[in-house]
Specification:
Layout (H helix, E strand, L loop, with lengths): L1 E4 L6 E5 L4 H18 L4 H17 L1 H12 L3 H25 L3 E5 L2 E9 L2 E5 L7 H13 L2 E5 L5 H13 L7 E3 L7 H6 L5 E5 L2 H14 L2 E5 L4 E5 L5 H13 L9 E7 H16 L19 H16 L3 E4 L14 E4 L16 E7 L2 H9 L3 E2 L3 E3 L3 H10 L6 E2 L14 E2 L2 E2 L4 H7 L1 E7 L1
Parallel strand pairs: 5-6, 5-8, 6-7, 8-9, 10-11, 10-16, 11-14, 13-14, 16-17
Antiparallel strand pairs: 1-2, 3-4, 4-20, 9-19, 12-13, 15-18
Length: about 450
């Protein structure tokens, strides 16, 4: 039985029964049959459905947002913004999908070849709790536009969100089998990947989950996209607007209570501006308003669960054991639920094990570096390579960071964020493949050469 527990109160707000083996089989069979019909649907039918789903998300914005707040603790303001981003994602593919799937003619020595994008089949998505709607839309919208169908295995924490998504898609008129929610435990995923009716799998989650899914997909010789962890650097150079960088840094570390793969986690600051940045950043982190996530003006609610909060607290103890110094915060708040205070760690040994971990909570590591070479070296000295943010007005420095930081994304003088139009994904142990834009649309498609 899945339990939805409000992390702001610790109270169980709902229970959800997992599907039986017969129910799982019925849904997979429905996806298989639904794909047989949907694969030949006209682009106009696909874009119309995406538009209706986007409209339905907008019409149900309050219900969706409130469910996310209750199940995983994000603030109401951020939950509303997440739903609005979902609407933009549906509308992006509805507007641009047909053009992105247009044929390309190639002239060869023997004649003409048409490169054509065709669907592949049912795609299984294993999605996390931290952005319970946007993560799903990033796979669902391009899957529908491609002519594929989707099966969602959502996190155990957010089964209410998953059921609500399925209801809204059905109400928007999606044909049978085009999108379905699978309320199943993680140990059922391997069997689904092995099922011949499922052609591909996409996962957003931890390294451990990614390795298991990739192993199962490899055994079945199936395409897989993985968006895993990150320990994103936030680099500040002497030419930067330090006041602005410090202000953005607070949001970049505490948004979603620090529970985002692309949250800035390691703040790498040039020695010339280190002390100024640290003072401003510390003031901002200590000023973060922690309160009921449903209340206006709250900056940060609880973490997603007591277990997640306790994991972050234990990571701080590990850092201190290696010689790091906690300037302030990082404490569990003595009240029901999964509350803690934001904190800042300094003097973290760069060569230690802790410096190479991902902290999935509102704790920042601040490092001092003497020059750009050291900044780039430290930024890359982790097993991850998802995102990065660099702050400099020097064009040459911007180009070096863009070229040399080992990451799938780099934001210049801005906080990193995902948008429907741009590719999203990482390198190294942050995964492989891309979501969003034309790249996400094409990941699970057959690029077929038609030679005449």
């Amino acid at each position: 039985m899945f339990k939805s527990i409000n992390p702001a109160t610790g109270e169980t707000i709902a229970t959800h029964a997992p599907l039986s083996a017969a129910e799982i089989e019925a849904k997979v069979a429905a996806a298989h049959a639904g794909y047989a019909r949907w694969r030949t649907s006209a682009y106009a039918e696909r874009t119309a459905l995406l538009s209706r789903i986007g409209d339905a998300f907008e019409a149900n914005k309050s219900a969706l947002a409130e469910m996310a707040v209750r199940e995983m603790g994000k603030t109401l303001k951020s939950a509303v913004a997440e739903v609005e981003k979902c609407v933009s994602g549906f509308r992006y593919y509805a507007e641009h999908g047909p053009a992105l799937l247009s044929d390309t003619e190639v002239q060869t020595a023997s004649g003409s070849t048409t490169a054509r994008w065709l669907p592949m089949g049912p795609v299984l998505a294993v999605m996390p709790w931290n952005f319970p709607y946007w993560q799903v839309v990033r796979f669902m919208a391009p899957a529908i536009m491609a002519g594929n169908v989707g099966l969602l295995k959502h996190a155990s924490l957010t089964q209410g969100c998953a059921a609500l998504i399925e209801d809204i898609v059905r109400q928007a008129g999606a044909p049978d089998g085009v999108f379905q929610n699978l309320a199943i435990p993680s140990d059922a995923v391997g069997g689904l990947i092995a099922d011949d009716r499922i052609v591909a799998v996409t996962l957003t989650g931890s390294e451990g989950a990614g390795m298991k899914v990739a192993e199962a997909a490899g055994r079945a010789l199936k395409k897989v996209v993985l968006e895993l962890g990150g320990s994103d650097p936030f680099i500040v150079m002497p030419s930067a607007d330090v006041a602005k960088a410090a202000k953005v840094a607070v949001t970049a570390r505490t948004q979603n209570a620090g529970q985002s793969c692309i949250c800035a986690k390691r703040f790498i600051v040039h020695a010339d501006v280190h002390d100024d940045f640290l003072a401003r950043f510390s003031d901002g982190m200590q000023a973060v308003k922690i309160d009921d996530p449903m209340t206006d003006g709250t900056d940060m609610g609880p973490l997603s669960s007591v277990e997640q909060r306790d994991t972050v607290v234990s990571q701080i103890a590990e850092a201190e054991g290696e010689g790091a110094r906690l300037l302030f915060g990082g404490e569990a708040i003595d009240r029901a639920g999964a509350w803690m205070t934001p904190g800042v760690l300094v003097d973290v040994p760069p060569e230690g094990a802790f410096a190479k971990q991902e902290i999935f909570g509102p704790i920042a590591m601040v490092f001092r570096v003497p020059d750009i070479d050291a900044a780039i070296a430290l930024a890359n000295d982790v097993p991850f390579g998802l995102g990065s943010s660099v702050w400099t007005t020097e064009a040459a420095e911007q180009e070096r960071f863009a070229r040399e930081i080992e990451a799938g994304m780099t934001a210049v003088n801005a906080m990193l964020a995902s948008v429907p139009e741009a590719p999203f994904g990482g390198v190294k142990r942050s995964g492989h493949g891309r979501e969003l834009g034309p790249w996400g649309l094409h990941e699970f498609m057959n690029l077929k050469a038609v030679m005449r």
